Amino acid sequence: MHLLKNFLNVSSVREFFTTYWLALAIALLCGILQLLGFDNALRYDRQLVGSSEPWRFLTANFVHLNWSHYWMNMGALGLLWLMFVRRLNTGEWLVVFLLSSLIVSTGVQWLNTDLYWYVGLSGTLHGVISAGVWRELRHDKLFALSVGGLTFIKLMYEQFYGALPGSEESAGGPVIVDAHFYGAIGGVVSVALLDLVQYCRTSKAS
Questions:
Q1: 3-class DSSP state for residue 79?
Q2: Residue 99 backbone dihedrals phi, psi, to 5 degrees
Q3: In this structure, what CATH number is given to the domain that contains residue 144?
Q4: Is 59 helix (H, G, I), strand (E, B) or coil?
Q5: What residue numbers bound the domain in which 192 lies?
Q6: Nearest to 181, CA basis, from 138, 124, 120
Q7: What is the pLDDT of residues 110-169, one digit of tens each?
Q8: Are 170 and 120 within 8 A, CB to CB?
Q9: Number of domains in the chain
């Protein structure tokens, strides 16, 4: 019902693209990078990010193992956008995407020292979930707590037992579950910083 209400609130084609353009742009960007075969050139590479190619900290999150992996993440992106798009403005969502992505790569770099490469948007998408849940608490606590609770259970399952059954087969490769955990932290950090900035501006204005 929540998703349907958000979708039906879009009253025209123009408003649809105005509301969902960022998600569409990210999906298009990821698709173009996949089509052009930039996964190796832009993926996280432990040796290269620490020396000559630090941009891989960010770009790794926007390339994928294969088309199956790509469509899994784009489906999740579309679902999350339906859930939470109206809870942050475009600038705020950009902050969440970029900061969550950087926190994912930084977590991998510092804490997963045996991991030499990774690709995929799923870590960043967990940042979108946690940021959306945080803001949704102001509007629909039951929905926010339900989504947040299920996400927490998923993250704990992954930390104790590894990837969800079937997820590696669907993605066509290993699932880096720690990236999901780092991304969720990144989303909370992002939205907390945004709220702090907003609070400081409000206090200064008054």
A1: helix
A2: -70, -40
A3: 1.20.1540.10
A4: helix
A5: 2-205
A6: 124
A7: 999 999 999 999 999 999 999 999 999 999 999 999 999 999 999 999 999 999 999 999
A8: no
A9: 1
